[in-house]
C-alpha cells in the first residue's frame, strides 16, 4: 500500500479517517518565521512485528533525520509511505517499511 500525505505550511493539515492509525502521530515543529525555499528529501526504513510497528520506527528515524537537518523545524512536508514488506516467509518474521519525506526548513 502506498499513501501520500501533503501537509501545508508548517505541517498544518488534517489526516483522512484511518490515516492516523497508519501514519501514527508526528511531533512536527511549528514555524515561527518563514519557510525556506530549499527542498530536501530523506528516506528512512523501519522494521517491526507489524506493518504499523515498522512504520512507527521509520517515522521516528525520519523525524530525527529531519530535525538534524532543520533544527528550527520543518515546513511544507510531503510524506510518502512505501510498501510494507515481509522480512521472511512467515508473518512471525516481521515487516519492513520505508517512509520518504520531501520538506523545507523553517527560516
Strand count, sense and barrel status of the largest sheet are: 5 strands, antiparallel
Rg estimate, integer Å: 14 Å
Number of strands: 5
The CA-CA distance between the termini, in Å, is 34 Å
Number of contiguous helices: 2
Extract low-pLDDT stretches: 1-29
Task: Describe how the helices and strands are arranged.
Blueprint: E1 3-6, H1 19-23, E2 40-48, H2 51-69, E3 74-81, E4 85-86, E5 95-105
Describe the structure.
The termini are far apart. The longest helix has 19 residues. It contains two helices and five strands. It has 107 residues and is of the alpha+beta class. It has one domain. The protein is 22% helix and 32% strand. Strands 1, 2, 3, 4 and 5 form a five-stranded antiparallel sheet that branches. A hairpin with an 8-residue loop joins β4 and β5.
Give keywords.
elongated; 107 residues; 32% strand; 2 helices; 5-stranded antiparallel beta sheet
Gist of the model:
The protein has 107 residues and is of the alpha+beta class. It has helices at 19-23, 51-69; strands at residues 3-6, 40-48, 74-81, 85-86, 95-105.
Amino acid at each position: 500500500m502506498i499513501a501520500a500525505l501533503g501537509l501545508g505550511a508548517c505541517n498544518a493539515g488534517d489526516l483522512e479517517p484511518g490515516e492516523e492509525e497508519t501514519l501514527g502521530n508526528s511531533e512536527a515543529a511549528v514555524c515561527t518565521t518563514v519557510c525556506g525555499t530549499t527542498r530536501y528529501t530523506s528516506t528512512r526504513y523501519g522494521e517491526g512485528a507489524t506493518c504499523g510497528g515498522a512504520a512507527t520506527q521509520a517515522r521516528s528515524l525520519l523525524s530525527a533525520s529531519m530535525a538534524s537537518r532543520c533544527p528550527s523545524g520543518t515546513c511544507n512536508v510531503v510524506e510518502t509511505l512505501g510498501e510494507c514488506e515481509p522480512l521472511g516467509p512467515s508473518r512471525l518474521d516481521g515487516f519492513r517499511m520505508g517512509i520518504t519525506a520531501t520538506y523545507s526548513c523553517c527560516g
